[in-house]
Specification:
Elements lengths: L3 E7 L1 H4 L8 H15 L3 E7 L2 H9 L7 H26 L4 E6 L8 H15 L3 E6 L13 H11 L4 E6 L19 E3 L5 H8 L9 H12 L5 E5 L5 H6 L6 E4 L1
Parallel strand pairs: 1-2, 1-5, 2-4, 3-4, 5-7, 6-8
Antiparallel strand pairs: 7-8
Function: Catalyzes the transfer of a phosphate group to glutamate to form L-glutamate 5-phosphate.
InterPro entries: AceGlu_kinase-like_sf, Asp/Glu/Uridylate_kinase, G5K_ProB, Glu/AcGlu_kinase, Glu_5kinase, Glu_5kinase/COase_Synthase
EC number: 2.7.2.11
Length: 256
């Protein structure tokens, strides 16, 4: 068994370009870092978005007028495509991965949760990288996660992770809008620090695809309060996961 476990969540905004196409080299760089850490006794659980975008790449369009059905169709078609990407890339580094799809009910106390624990423990014991995502094809509104940040937090608690890293397309939590010259990245935030005011400034006037920091801040604080150090960092930086594990000053760190 590996001595350290981490959970890495990668969002759609990290893995796609301006045309909403998945960028293979970004995924491969992510896998490279996970493989590097694996050789240094750190095993990763990867929480990955991207199935809906991958489905759109395959289908182009969906004829249904129902938004929920379109999401189900795209995700159902895209999930195998995403896993094919990951399977090939991990194989290139001599590693194995496995898919774990879940709905929110799977984390509720009882047999579903116990089943999830057994699944993750079985994969981790074999040195297999679990790749988690919401089971969008069957999720109902009452059993959906708010987003994959919430899923990553629940997985971190489930596997007793030593760290959660949430990768986005900016450096971390800023003191103002990320594009403003006088804005700075907050390197360390404690769960009781009042930093929510900065999120309002960050997101004011932002368009679609730039939001989400309010959710990330909430999840980061919640996860850190359970003694799981949590980072928000830029997933497009070449060695971001390795830099965090080696203690470099990158991203925003959340602790108790």
């Amino acid at each position: 068994m590996h001595s350290k476990r981490i959970v890495v969540k990668v969002g759609t905004n990290v893995m796609t370009n301006r045309n909403n196409r998945i960028v293979g080299p970004i995924l491969k760089n992510l896998v490279r870092q996970i493989a590097y850490l694996y050789e240094r006794d750190v095993i990763t659980v990867l929480v990955s978005s991207g199935s809906a975008i991958a489905g759109k790449e395959v289908l182009g369009s969906c004829s249904s007028d129902d938004k929920s059905i379109r999401r189900q169709v795209y995700s159902s078609v895209g999930q195998p495509r995403m896993m094919r990407h990951y399977y090939t890339m991990f194989h290139d580094f001599g590693m194995r991965c496995g898919q774990v799809l879940a709905t929110k009910r799977d984390f509720a106390p009882g047999k579903y949760r116990e089943n999830m624990i057994n699944c993750y423990e079985g994969l981790l014991k074999e040195g297999i990288v679990p790749i988690a995502n919401e089971d969008d094809a069957v999720s109902l509104s009452m059993s959906m996660f708010s987003d994959n940040d919430e899923l990553a937090s629940l997985v971190s608690e489930l596997v007793k992770a030593d760290m959660l890293i949430m990768l986005t397309d900016i450096e971390g939590l800023y003191t103002g809008h990320p594009d403003h010259e006088d804005s700075k990245v907050l390197r360390h935030v404690r769960v009781h620090d009042n930093v929510e005011k900065y999120v309002q400034e960050n997101e004011k006037g932002e368009g679609e695809g730039r939001g989400g920091m309010e959710s990330k801040l909430k999840i980061a604080k919640m996860t850190a309060s359970k003694n799981i150090p949590t980072f928000i960092a830029n997933g497009k930086d070449e060695n971001i996961i390795i830099d965090i594990l080696e203690g470099r000053e990158v991203g925003t760190k959340f602790t108790v």
